[in-house]
Model the fold of this input.
Amino acid sequence: MISRFFQIPLWQRTFAGLALGVIAGLILRERAEIWLQPIGDVYLNLIRMVVAPLVLFTIASSIAKLGEGAGAVRLGVRTLVWFAITSLLAVLVGFAFGHLINPGV
Done:
């Protein structure tokens, strides 16, 4: 059954998930938050748990494959600095939109 699921193109699975979410929201109305919040919390926790180490180890692996030398060290430092800067910008944009939109209110 799982192999048949992965034979379906990703865009179709994504669209089906979106459609099921809309249908669940229309059926459950106000109760949708109560019933679906645990699923959303698990999903977000899994994303947080996987993404940061994945990016960090991808960068570390890329740097390690470059070999030894001054150029590799300089490239590694530049990569880590850019990673830190873009992460900081992403957090600042998230906070700004969070204050503007007030998503929990």
In short: The CA atoms of residues 21 and 84 lie 34 Å apart. The mean pLDDT is 88. The first helix runs from residue 2 to 7. The radius of gyration is 20 Å.
